[in-house]
Amino acid sequence: MENQAVENYALEQVPDDMKRGWKSIFCVLVAIGVDLSSVILGAELANSMPLDKAILSVVVGSFLSAILYTLCSLVGSSTSLSTSMITKYVFGDIGAKVFSLAIGISLLGWFGVQVGFFSENASLLFNNFNINIDVRILSLIGGLLMMSTVIYGYRAMEKLSVYSVPLLLVLMFLTIFLGFKANGVPTIEANMEQTMTFAQGVSLAVSIIIVGAIISPDISRWAKSRRDCTISSFFGILFGNSFMIIVSIILVKCMGTSEIMNIFLALGLAIPGMIVLTLAQWTTNTSNIYSSALSIALVVKKVSQKKLTIILGLIATLLAVLGIYEGFINFLNILGIVVAPVGGVYIAEYYIVKKAFKNIEDESSVNPIVTRSIVAWVIGIVITTLSTYGFITLSTISPLDGFITGFIAQAIIGKLSK
């Protein structure tokens, strides 16, 4: 076994003496939620809805997300297993490997996309000081920096989050204060033309976290108890998923621009802006590589977690340098179709069917294929596909449609099967 300092327990249960209280997990989840994707979503909502409706849609969406996230997290906390290992018991060995490859590749690509956000904004900041650095160089530096923490496992991620979150909060509140001081408190625009409905705003606030909910056991398996898991997951997502989006909405309304770096520059906060940019992407991207390594470890069992993390981090950084941001969004949509129903299937198995997790101490009990779960997964994929491409409209959130469908199908088929 690897040194405890870098042990991720990818293929086994996390030992009780290694588990953590709710505070550290809460910080990790808040840190994951604070990223540039949230800033971009906040800007979109600010430009499409009045201030009060934009903020309320985020609060409602984050509340729903927190419930969904907590339901998934409790499966990880109760079993002490990673998402990929949970799917091994639910779908069988072969089915789990298919899922693990899909989610692992997806997270590598998303790491590259987030590094792309970082390098583009960092380039804008450096240009303000007449310093021209190639975006590819910034992507290389950013990618290597962000993968460095994960090499040392969950505890390194935890420390980064515990120290980063308070600093990020202080800097963002300072930015809001200076924005109010410069331009006044934004008012509710009673006559603003609304180009997005309230339901669409809620949908976007949910969709930004739904894939993260499905892989939440990767983090929640470290919780000491179900209570620690519930507190950290619910409030970590409720606050973490909403904070940066709401801050972005307020700043865009106050400053009249959607570019977060231009807002920092206009307020004379170039250095704090760079700190926010770096920490926000760093804390979020560590979880992408971390979960990707946990997923792919189920397929590549002979490579140590540390070596696998380094290899995957280098691949993801190379993808960022090559500009994966340009063409990855469509690929993410396709992977979302495959991944979304999985969460519904495994929480139905855990809460209702209650068959797959009876012998988690005995890996020899795992079947190559669990047919009922595969059938439920396929049904979920079909509904998600139809919803994604506009053939049907259910919740208006395609991944959520797949999640709910997978849950219902697994509950019914699981109860009917022997």
Structure overview:
The protein contains 17 helices and no strands. The chain is mainly α and 418 residues long. The longest helix is centred in the first third of the chain and has 36 residues, at 93-128. The chain is 73% helix and 0% strand.
- Tell me the fraction of residues in β-strands, as a range: under 5%
Overall pLDDT level: 86
Count of discrete alpha- or pi-helical segments spanning 4 or more residues: 17
Largest sheet: none
User: What share of residues is helical?
Assistant: over 70%
Number of strands: 0
Structural class: mainly alpha
Gap from first CA to last CA: 38 Å
The H/E string reads HHHHHHHHHHHHHHHHH
The best one-word shape is: globular
Alpha carbon gyration radius: 21 Å
Low-confidence stretches: 1-6
Keywords:
418 residues; mainly alpha; disordered N terminus
Structure in a nutshell:
The protein is mainly alpha-helical. The chain has helices spanning 22-33, 36-48, 51-79, 83-91, 93-128, 135-148, 154-183, 198-207, 210-214, 217-220, 226-255, 260-266, 270-297, 305-321, 328-353, 371-388, 398-416.
Detail the topology: elements first, then pairings.
Blueprint: H1 22-33, H2 36-48, H3 51-79, H4 83-91, H5 93-128, H6 135-148, H7 154-183, H8 198-207, H9 210-214, H10 217-220, H11 226-255, H12 260-266, H13 270-297, H14 305-321, H15 328-353, H16 371-388, H17 398-416
Helix pairs in contact: 1-7, 1-11, 1-13, 2-11, 3-8, 3-11, 4-5, 5-6, 5-12, 5-13, 5-14, 5-15, 6-13, 6-14, 7-11, 7-13, 13-14, 15-16, 15-17, 16-17
